Amino acid sequence: MKTFRTSKGILIQKIAGGRSNVFLVKASREIFLIDTGPAFMRNQLLKRLQKAGIESIDYLILTHTHFDHAANASIIKERTGAKVIVHANEAAYLLSGDSPIPHGSNLFTSWLIKDFGKMVQKQVIYPSCQADILVNNEFTFLNHGSDIRIIHTPGHSSGSMCIIIDNEIALAGDTLVGTIPGKCFPPFLDDMPELIHSWQELLKTECTIFLPSHGSEVRREVVAKKLAKEIALQNSFAAR
Known about the structure:
The protein is α/β, with parallel strands linked by helices. The protein is about 30% helix and about 25% strand.
C-alpha cells in the first residue's frame, strides 16, 4: 500500500488501485476516503478497508461521478457512515447513478466514444447515492482541525474537483493522469479551455506532487511543462 505523508503529518494511502486509484487520508481528527473505484472493485476496496482497521469514515469525497469513481459510493456510505461530498454540478448524476461519459481528447478515444459510448453508458449505471455536502467553488476543512480543502477543477467533467492537502499534495482525480511517465493529459474530457484553467489553478497552489486517479504520481514540473505547451498551442490556433 503506497503511502505519502505531508510535512504536517497528514497520511495519504493508496488503499486500492488497478482500474482506478482510491485514497485513504488520515488527518489529526478525521478520516477521508477519496473516490470508490468501479463496481468490480467493491470487494477489493471493502477488504482493504477492513485490513486497515477502518470501520468508520468521516467523509467520502468524490472527485467526480463517473462510474469508475463513484460506483461504490452507496455501499461505502452505508457501511462506514461517511458523509458524501460531491460538486453541485454532479449531485443529480450521483443520485441517478447515471453519469455522462466524457468526450475523447484524441482521435482514438474520440472514435471509442463515438462508436461505443452509448452502449457503455447503459452498462455502467451504478446504485443511487444521496450526497450530504455539495461543493461549489471551494470547500475547506480548516475548522475541523485539518488543512484540507477542495477546489473546483472542471474540464474532465463539469463537477471535477481536486483535494489540496497541506498545500503540498493534491489528489487530482482525472484532471491529470499518470499512466505514462512524463505525461499528464487525460484521454477523455468535456472542455479543453476549462481543463487548462484548472491546471493553472492547481499550479497556483504550492503542491509538488499530484496523485491522479489513474496511474502514478505526477510531479509539478510535468504539469507546468504540459500547461505551457497547451497554452502555446491554443495561442497559435487563435492567431490563425
